[in-house]
Amino acid sequence: MGHSHSHSHDSAGATHRWRLQLAFGLVATFFVVELVTALTSGSLALLSDAGHMAADVVALGAALVATRIAARPDSTGRRTYGSFRAEVFASGLAVLLMLGVAAYIAFEAVQRIGGPAQVATGPMLVVGVLGLVVNLIALALLRGGAADSLNVKGAYLEVVADTLGSVGVIAAGVLVAATGDALWDTGIALAIAAFVAVRAVMLGREVLTVLGQHAPAGMSPDDVTAALAGVPGVVDVHDLHVWTLTSGMNVATAHLMTVEAVDPHDVLDAARQVMRVQFGVEHATLQVEPETHTGCHDVAW
Questions:
Q1: Between vectors from CA 18 to CA 165 and to CA 152, what angle results, nearest 5°?
Q2: What are the boundaries of each domain within the chain?
Q3: What is the pTM of this model?
Q4: For residue 114, what pLDDT band results from cuts at 50, 70 and 90?
């Protein structure tokens, strides 16, 4: 007699979908305004910020789509872990977009050095201030979900970088207006590019950690092994694996070798309690086997 082990979960990203929706609407609307102003004013800093805001629009859109995909039921029966990883892939897309924007800004800035540049500081300052307001609102929306979801965090970092870009646009406008030197516009654009690249690399490392199925941040496999080994009746713990499926969903598997006299049901219940309470792992697949069992020695890897 069998029963289903499938479980229905809402990912952290799905919980905060409304934040993504509002932020997407704000940023997408303002992107059009900023792009038109950048092209008419001749400001590289403003154009770089518009380029980064375009990346925001794509990243936020991808994040929204990912939350939908993650919540979609599996009709094939083959996706035994569901589609939660879609949110992690969306974060990876945000990383690639941020790196691409940073490279484009740097290239344009280097090309402009030494050449004549006319910058209309009036429109540049107005749009810079409006952009800052829009980004601050988007930050307030996304901040509440950034700690819970890698997907939302990717969108949040995109907007953080864009907020700095708006500050840079305002600073560049003030400096160019005060000095008449368009080199300030170029220099600040390069600073924005550097900041965006650094944040992209930091987020990229988190994405690769999840995709590489490393142990979750703050969870030591040795500590997990020791805690499970402390369960009454357990004499050995092997084949332990801990990883993150998506933000807020950590998974574990392990083999627990026990003395002959112990009740395996008691061991299983106690071990699951250890994983849930001490390590926050709700989904732990634990195999209880007597110490006389030698089947694991036949496993090739």
A1: 50
A2: 12-211, 221-298
A3: 0.71
A4: low
